[in-house]
Specification:
Layout: E1 2-8, E2 18-26, E3 29-38, H1 43-64, H2 70-91, E4 99-100, E5 102-108, E6 111-117, E7 121-125, E8 130-132, H3 139-145, H4 151-155, E9 176-181, E10 187-191, H5 193-196, H6 201-210, H7 217-227, E11 234-240
Antiparallel strand pairs: 1-11, 2-3, 3-4, 3-5, 5-6, 6-9, 7-8, 7-10, 10-11
Helix pairs in contact: 1-2
């Protein structure tokens, strides 16, 4: 099991408001998280950085106390991050209304658990296919699910960046949780929408499987986004199961 990641402010933005982290808890247990902040030039960065920090702190506290249930670990760690961001957003005038997306995964042997809030994504990739595990909490995704937009129309919709859920937006967390078994030599990819808005699922699949060494894949995907103008921050984490 290996992990790689990268982040970049992109071509247009002056500041990178994405934050991420990944680590090996043991030889067969991995943890990764990606957050994409919102709420203005300063507050977006505060929200994403705080969310990652609070998430990791609570996760490790639970881990050291002996908790090994993946759902409990992710949900309680994310809930702690949510409370911290929400409190800051309601008590600090410079950070009023800030929030962040979050997508995170805990891999234990051949089993993955994923949590998401917002439109940062998790994909599962095998030699046969790419599968988007998470569902975007966004206006256009709701329109696609109701049959009012096609996926292709959603990619270019003027309101594609309007999300319907964000960590820190409310006092209580309402994240989605997914779990599934993984196959040997498969991959999990986490990314902010700065990547998924510019690079298609099939392009991601090709770069992961055929574009070159796995350790260079995050950089290759970033370069594709940069060549296409990268109007948003871009973050990608790749895990080889």
């Amino acid at each position: 099991m290996d992990m790689w990641g990268t982040t970049n402010r992109g071509v247009v933005r002056e500041e990178n408001q994405d934050a991420y982290s990944f680590e090996a808890l043991s030889a067969r247990q991995l943890l990764a998280v990606v957050c994409d902040g919102m709420g203005g030039a300063r507050a977006g960065n505060v929200a994403s950085s705080m969310a990652v920090s609070e998430f990791l702190e609570r996760f490790h506290m639970l881990w050291e106390a002996g908790e090994r249930n993946p759902a409990i670990l992710l949900e309680q760690a994310a809930a702690c991050a949510n409370q911290a961001v929400h409190h800051r957003s309601t008590t600090d005038s410079d950070c009023f209304g800030m929030g962040t997306t979050m997508v995170c995964t805990f891999l234990d042997q051949d089993h993955a658990t994923i949590l998401n809030e917002g439109d940062s994504r998790a994909y599962y990739i095998t030699p046969e296919r790419i599968l988007q595990i998470t569902r975007d909490h966004s206006l256009v995704e709701d329109l696609v699910r109701r049959g009012e937009l096609t996926p292709d129309q959603a990619r270019v919709h003027p309101h594609k960046n309007l999300i319907t859920r964000a960590l820190g937006a409310e006092a209580d967390l309402h994240a989605d949780l997914f779990d599934f078994d993984t196959e040997p030599n498969s991959f999990i990819l986490l990314c902010s929408d700065g990547l998924s808005n510019l690079v298609s699922d099939q392009e991601i699949l090709y770069e992961v499987l055929h574009g070159g060494p796995a350790e260079d894949c995050c950089q290759r995907l970033l370069e594709i986004a940069m060549k296409r103008g990268a109007p948003d921050n871009v973050t990608v984490v790749l895990i080889q199961c």
